[in-house]
Amino acid sequence: MQLWLIPILPLAGFVINGLLGRRLSRGLVSAIAIGSVLLSFAWVLKTIFGLGDLNSRYVEHYYTWIASGSVNIAADFAVDKLAVVMLLVVTGIGSLIHVYSIGYMAHEGGYYRFFAFLNLFMFFMLVLVLASNYLVLFIGWEGVGLCSYLLIGFYFHRQSATNAGNKAFIVNRIGDFGFSLAMFYIFKNFGSLDFTKVFQQAPGASEAVLTTIGLLLMVGACGKSAQLPLYVWLPDAMEGPTPVSALIHAATMVTAGVYMVARSWPIYVHAPSAMNVVATVGIATAFFAATIGLVQNDIKKVFAYSTVSQLGYMFVGVGCGAFSAGIWHLMTHAFFKALLFLGAGSVIHALSGEQDLRNMGGLRNKIPWTFLTMMCAAVAIAGVPPFSGFYSKDAILLAAHEHAPWMYWVGVATAGMTAFYVFRAMFLAFFGEYRGKEHAHESPPVMLAPLAVLALLSLVGGFLFNIPQFLSGVFPAREAAEDNSLMLISVGAGVIGILLAWFIYVAKPAMADSLASTFGWIYKTLYNKYYVDEIYDAAIVKPLVGGSRTVLWKDVDAGLIDGSVNGVGTRAKDIGGVLRLLQSGNIRSYATWVLFGSVVAIVALALAGIGSTGGLR
Amino acid sequence: MLAAVPISWFLTLSAVLFALGVAGFVFRRNIITVFMSIELMLNAVNLSFVTFSYHRQQVNGHLYAFFVMVVAAAEAAVGLAIILTIFKNRGTLNIDDVDSMKN
Hints:
The structure holds 2 protein chains of 2 kinds. Chain A is mainly alpha-helical. Chain B has a domain of 62 residues: Helix Hairpins (Orthogonal Bundle).
């Protein structure tokens, strides 16, 4: 089926735009970038229809990449139903965001660079999804991290943007360290990194081994998918252009961790304690990030913390054994969060770069299409039935209730907060009086069209694509208890959140400030994100930097390494300085030395001769 | 006749000649003289070779003596050419002035 064509097409786009883009016209650059992704999307569709029911894994072997002793790693691609879902999300939403970017980036410099990086990201993301062993997956995993870094730091002339890029990269290294250890451990125990071989042997392995692997894999997933305690890079990643936030930091890359955990389900199902940790980390992240999201004033920061929170939901899903529910939420979240970010981008575009909610307001008449489409995403994420977020969130909450009722109740509280902060952002931006100075203008059709498509998907994506049913053959079957009262409670929490937001920010606008001053210290803690960045700075970054500066730099590098190297040089120079005196340029002095040497040699030989023979012959 | 002369005389002569060569090499300043001293040392060694060869009734020493002569002839040709060039370029034959290798 030529699976390799799927990632190679965006790679070709990257190569062409990256090497020649500077000389091509903007039209041509966008045509190449979008054309390559659309072709890739088309090839995904053709592959899916060509493969029929897809009940078994379809593997394509290309060549043996590493063959050394017992290490045998193939460069293979594989497709199953799980990969199909991801492929469609990545290429489908990727195409829409590429189209949107034409309009968003129209007034920006580095146009070709942006599209080249975006195409490179698509390549690595597709490699990640198509991988048939952990090492190929890891290549995609690192590649998307690289593209994330490049695109966060896209406005590299801004110090904050380059810092955010570095932060994302460095925090992800911690996660990748765990992932690497997991791979070593898998290889040590199973003698292979191939998914099929590892998962065949997984049921026979001891629980301790599987738990260790599961926890190490989770560390990797926590880095990439921005879970506690490694989530800190994602809110800062909003320094990148908004389409990047939508594509990489909401819809696709950050869900790679969830995908990886779901992909490794045969390991996790035999390691219940590892799964429990995954679910606990997920629910904690979901709740924690949602509370921060309640009070942020930057529209993109609100959605960033929302993304962290929703990723937490997905972790709860896969951690509770409801893998398909997690993937379902991954898909619906890709729809509505991409839409929220693109809508936010449209608002920012309309206000010529303004991101602060306090300087917005009353925009619903000025940019009605953006408002309408974002409203679709807002109702979807708030879990209002029958829109997409309702289905997936409900499936996860049901699974959570089965796993541990307290997780369900925390999840419900989080759902209420989710509805509140999203509608708070909506009301602040689109209702009330306009508080800014910029003249607002509606975005061009090329930006609105992707918004419309995503709005449609956010509304109907839930019941149109029943992922648990589609994936029923992939994951172990589980009895999903239908419980309408649980569903009603979570929907009720969402509705209460919406109404509360309406009440505070539209009906009685003065209330927000009075509430903030009443709960002063809570508000301040939340507004400052629990001072996590400051704590990390004081506990980890400062000691590391200080230690590197004093011990590693001044002592080890300058003192020990430079000292020994310079010492060797100085000694050689000193010895040379003495020997230099011999080379006087005076032939007669040389001759004297020769004479002296000869005499010494003869005397030595004579003495040796005496020693060995007992006398002169 | 030769049999009457003890071998130690030849060797002593050789040693004296060699010592004279060394002394001339070390103490004289004129390059030509230094060069001649080298020839003197070579011939002193030749004398030793031939003496030992005759004494032990073996031909090896003679062969070495011929080799040394050939090399000395070649060395004389090259050495004199160098001395000529030095004199042309610097107008001096004082060996202490030829020290441009220093520094």
